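Retry 2 of 3 after timeout on previous attempt. Resubmitting structure tokens to design endpoint.
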């Protein structure tokens, strides 16, 4: 959705400011591609699926650090989660008079945090289900099993193995629910961007592609 929660006036603007820096843009699109790939294209639990999960984890960590150290528009302080402000913004949007923001608008901010929360849950449960093993280690274990060496899968402690198996089932269910919820939220996000771009008569996608927002 749109772009701190400080409304911006466009009066006298000769050169629109940079809205999103390269790190925000690149991490946004890489995570979007990763969500689509792992949610719709790749086999769950496969090596590629796990590699992408680790990549998302790294991107999230980088983005969270950037939320404290990055430029003003990218910092968490620029778009705090504020449900009341989000509802107010949506009402203004329905009335056709939404305010302009240099960072995420209040509704967009809520969506961002919701998507991040889903990503944290998905990657966290994914790590638990794989024992936090690196994709390389998992690939080596699968290769060993394919070659007939099942020793890598033998549990040292049967009781501990049973407990982990039970927790693993819960983690798998939570993982799937969070992943599906994230896909639904992503669709709502895309629809929100399209609606707001139309109402505000300016592209909200352009700043995330090229960094500049050009008023039409």
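Retry 2 succeeded. Sequence:
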């Amino acid at each position: 959705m749109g772009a701190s929660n400080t409304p911006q006036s466009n009066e006298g603007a000769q050169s629109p400011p940079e809205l999103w820096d390269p790190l925000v843009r690149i991490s946004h699109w890489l995570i979007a591609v990763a969500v689509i790939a792992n949610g719709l294209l790749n086999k769950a639990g496969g090596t590629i699926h796990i590699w992408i999960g680790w990549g998302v984890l790294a991107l999230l960590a980088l983005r969270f650090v950037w939320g404290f150290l990055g430029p003003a528009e990218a910092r968490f302080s620029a778009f705090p989660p504020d449900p009341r402000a989000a509802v107010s913004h949506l009402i203004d949007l329905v009335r056709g008079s939404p305010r302009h923001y240099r960072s995420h608008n209040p509704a967009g901010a809520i969506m961002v945090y919701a998507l991040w929360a889903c990503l944290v849950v998905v990657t966290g449960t994914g790590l638990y289900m794989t024992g936090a093993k690196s994709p390389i280690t998992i690939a080596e274990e699968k290769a060993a099993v394919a070659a007939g060496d099942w020793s890598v899968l033998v549990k040292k402690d049967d009781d501990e193995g049973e407990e982990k198996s039970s927790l693993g089932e819960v983690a798998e269910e939570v993982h799937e629910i969070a992943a599906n919820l994230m896909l639904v939220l992503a669709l709502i996000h895309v629809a929100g961007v399209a609606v707001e771009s139309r109402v505000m008569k300016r592209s909200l996608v352009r700043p995330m592609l090229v960094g500049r927002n050009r008023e039409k």
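Attempt log closed. The helical segments are 22-41, 47-69, 83-94, 106-129, 135-146, 158-200, 206-210.
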